[in-house]
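step: validate -> pass
step: tokenize input -> pass
step: predict -> running
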Amino acid sequence: MIDWRKDSTEWDRADREPERSPPFDPAAAARLLIGRRYSDNKGRCLIRHYRGAFLRWRDGWWSAVEDCDIRSEITAMLLEAQHGPGSALRGRILRPVMISDVIAMLRDLPEVSIPSDFEMPGWLGQEAAVDRPPARDFVPMLNGLLHLRSGELWPADPMFFALGGIDVAFDPEASAPAWQRFLRELWGDDEASIRALQEFAGYIMSADVRQQKALLQSARVGPAKGRSQRSCGTSPDAAPPSARP
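step: predict -> pass
step: emit ->
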């Protein structure tokens, strides 16, 4: 309803005021962020939110990314949009709550959010799992996904969801003289112990626990027990190996 009681100065001021900018859309901003910074040339999303944390796919596997890093990238994108021609943010004041709204929306987008009951490792989406071996049979390497049963190297794939990988490139012709020398220093000619330790070292690099195996080492004179545990990252004072998915 028109308020005819307004005086002429109020009408003149209203005519001079610029049109209001459209409301800020955090969902659109979140998807813009994915398109610009978190997607590959096939349009696949390279950022996920799982069990309270953001994860980013790079170097062939998924790893944690801090919220502060995401805030920084959102801030940079919105500051750039402030000066873009035709942008809904042009001339608007950038407020911290806007960045928080984008993070909240990014976390909840269906292409980003992963249900908390999803078990790693696994293939994201039904289409990714079609005609592929179980995810537990793969280990991420720098140059692809190693299929443990066949020894075949598959292309790196962000639809393979697991944390971490082995930060070396797989080479089926590679030798390991230092490892072989280490085993001989520990066990000498005890071939059974050498095979057992090598089998267990390979077993803990995979996510396959179907065999329900554990390594039990009895105490003995010499450093073999502690050194072999540290080499596999299983001693109490050893840092967890980056090879564990």
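step: describe -> Residues 1-18, 234-245 have pLDDT under 50 and may be disordered.
step: cleanup -> pass
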